[in-house]
Predict the 3D structure of the following.
Amino acid sequence: MLAACGSGDGGTPTLTWYTNPDSGGQAEIASRCTEAAEGRYRIETATLPREASAQREQLVRRLAANDSSIDIMSLDPPFIPEFAQAGFLAPIPEDVAERVTEDVVESAIEGSTWDDELVAVPFWANTQILWYRTSVAEAAGLDMTQPVTWDQLITAAQDQEKLLGVQGIRAEALTVWFNALIESAGGSIIAENSTDPEQIVLGLDSPEGVRAAEVMRQISDSGVTGPALSTANEDSTATGFESEDGGFVVNYPFLWPRALAAVEAGTMDQSVPDDYGWAVYPQVDEGNESAPPYGGINLGIGAFSENVDFAYEASECITSTENQAYYFVSNGNPASDTTVYEDPAVLEEFPMAPVIQQSLEQAAPRPQTPYYSEVSGGLQREYHPTTSVDPESTPQSATDFITAVLKKEQLL
């Protein structure tokens, strides 16, 4: 492992930035920020496992042992409250907090906040948008310049005998989908939060939670989600959308560079991406603004780092407007900085950038709780397969089960 501090002979301090796997963008940014530091410190990257749960496990084990080699961490937002509550994150100075939240979308700030304090530095902010085939939408008579509902999409897909892609796999993707549904209905998975797991009150059995379950079951029974909804993830629904049966799908911005790369490789005809359209996430009820998924990566500074001041300075360089624009264009990861969406290079590479920005402005983070793994795991168990969801009973059974898990009366 790379050392977090300089050599014993007083050499240049080395910061270790633990990154999630990408296409080399974070390593390039580390090189850029090393150059910008002008010899005061250098940044090396160490790549974490691909799965977010494995990333969390590795970092938690080392931070629980007061590991000083962890200076900067690329953190999945749902895990941030757990790390903050455990004392694994160094406090962010007020002046740094002011600078790193300037011009940043609110969802990314919320995703970096715990107990009313900013505990991580917003970096890139992902979201799902509604992708559609313009030919299918036109044939169905949908006006895509206006918000559309799930009901409208189901009807359009059925009428045109096309696919409506959603992620129904028993994995984090299912929690992402359900959270977007309940937040779009005006509710929340957690109605009353607490650092005491026994005091957490869930909102699953609320009218909004029941409405989310109704929509999930309606989509699952629609006959237009494809033959393998119970294992459908982001990649498989992207493949379905690319096929001749493609109609509509909720998915991340990676669909665009994926399609262009396929055209360049000769495995997809240019007419396919030419037919792509994009819009904000579907509404649960007409007239009520949707709450798209929020994801991405934020930066945590290790509480046991021997170079905390340098780490915060480096984090400001990493998340600069210039570097966020570079990361968006090169790796396809949307910026949390709203000024990036005015960059001509970004708009040229991602013509749907304004829709992505709007989606991030409306987006809602998943539950902010130190017990996120228990809550998400319980949801995945009780709401899978989605064809078995019963709006009259599943919200209550899920509430009972997750509450019992939080009280240590049951195991996931």
The radius of gyration is 22 Å. The first strand starts at residue 14 and ends at 19. The domain at 14-119+295-362 is CATH 3.40.190.10 (D-Maltodextrin-Binding Protein; domain 2). The first helix runs from residue 25 to 36.
